[in-house]
């Protein structure tokens, strides 16, 4: 999957599409998902043009990597879900159903989430 500079997250980062921002630093932006799957559903995205975890881990700076990891934990804590628990998910590629070609981390919380993947 190639990076598309016109993907929805790139447009949000450029300010072309509004978002309900919950956190921002020099390297990341976090905002509420417009179609939440759980009572708390926040997306955390790097500001750089990275397609996936693979792309990010191979090409991002140490500062960007640290900022993204810390942003996820900060967002969970500030949303008040760190104590009860939350799930972090990033879909990578076609088989994982990645829909937007910009690395994004879902933070799900606010209810018991159950199994991550159903048993076959």
Question: How would you describe this protein?
Answer:
This protein is α+β, with helices and mostly antiparallel strands and 120 residues long. It has one domain (8-109): HIT-like (HIT family, subunit A), CATH 3.30.428. Helix content is 25%, strand content 21%. It contains 3 helices and 5 strands; from the N terminus they run αβββααββ. The chain has helices at 8-13, 53-59, 62-78, and strands at residues 21-24, 28-32, 40-46, 86-89, 105-109. The chain has a 5-stranded antiparallel beta sheet with strand order 1-2-3-5-4, covered by helices on one side. A hairpin with a 7-residue loop joins strand 2 and strand 3. The protein is globular and about 35 Å long.
Number of separate helices: 3
Strand content: 15-25%
Using the coordinates shown, work out and report the CATH topology: HIT family, subunit A
Q: Helicity, in percent?
A: 25-40%
Uncertain runs: none
Q: Write down the Rg.
A: 14 Å
Strand order of the largest sheet: 1-2-3-5-4
Mean pLDDT: 94
Strands, count: 5
Q: How far is it from the N-terminal to the C-terminal residue, by CA?
A: 28 Å
Secondary structure layout:
Blueprint: H1 8-13, E1 21-24, E2 28-32, E3 40-46, H2 53-59, H3 62-78, E4 86-89, E5 105-109
Which terms summarize this structure?
120 residues, 5 strands, HIT-like, 25% helix, HIT family, subunit A, alpha+beta
Give a quick rundown of the structure:
InterPro entries: Histidine_triad_CS, Histidine_triad_HIT, HIT-like, HIT-like_sf. The protein is an alpha+beta fold.
